[in-house]
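Bug #77: duplicate submission created two jobs. Keeping one. Sequence:
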Amino acid sequence: MMNSFLQSLQDPHLVASFQRYCGLLLQVEERLAGGCSNSPGNASGSQGPVERANVFKTSECANGNRRYKTNGSHQYPYRQDKEDGCGMTGYAVKIVMYLGQTSKDIIKWPRPLSPPVVKLETRVDAEYGMPSTHAMAATAISFTFLIATMYRYKYSVAFGLLASTMLSALVSLSRLYTGMHTVLDVICGVLITAVLMALTYPFWNILDNFQLTSPLTPIIAIVMPFFMSYTYPALDHYSPTRGDTTIILGVASGCTVGFWMNYQYGRTYEPTGSLPFEIPSITPEVVSLAIARFLIGILVLVATRQVVKTLSLKVLYAWFDVAGHDMEARKRLEIEVPYKFATYSSIGFNATVIVPLLYQLLELL
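Kept job's structure:
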């Protein structure tokens, strides 16, 4: 009984039904030659442009091959004290994303078949589907931020709960709409995150205090994530999951070192007053400051990415004697992991240390 129920949640026709309900339909047309194939780990067919339609058609050509065609800000943004939601949200995302990404390549369940599902994304075709890391990340971000701030700021907890639930649900449903996951993938992603949050919640303050005060934090924050990235489960084909996981761990590593450094030098950008804090009103001044901070921050981080990425690739190419124009070399373990980790850990560090300092110098805080 249970096995039959779980299989029904994996049925791609269930995803296709949801897509049709949303107005996204698949049309299959005849062709005389050629065939469609499913790449390892994704089970996705070849598709043309996606649009909306009012009909759902399927026809099969004489040789059994098919051709598929779709129709159819806040005033105090940089605070790292142990009561703040920013640090714990970062922990949650790092943990659930790493477990989710590695689980995909260990379980190796394919993404829903196309047809009947319409695939709106092609970049992740080589990835496996179970569990949905988008659903995991959305649930972790929204609910850890809610839990960590509900007693710190004056706002309606009921409204916060509603907003967190809606964010998690919308992201989860978007994975069905884009045809990237089965219903079971999404449900498992949400449930895994809920269990992880329940198990780790008693240790949040302990972990946060250790991160901010221990002299070992910079070493642990760099060595452990890099080791986790380098020992990522190997596949028999290239998949972007290793690179994506390295990016996630790299950003978390840089942010952790940045939070630690800010705390050591007393730069926690703590708002004044007693708990719970008032949420600033949205005024033209607040909006203009937010826009200015956003633009400056984006410029710094984009520049950081470009500079560190270019330099790290040059060093690695020279070290491993690789031609600079060899784009495929970037997929090699010994090149992909170091350059992405160096690039995105630098971004994380600059986002938490350099950018806030720049804001302070420009009197934008």
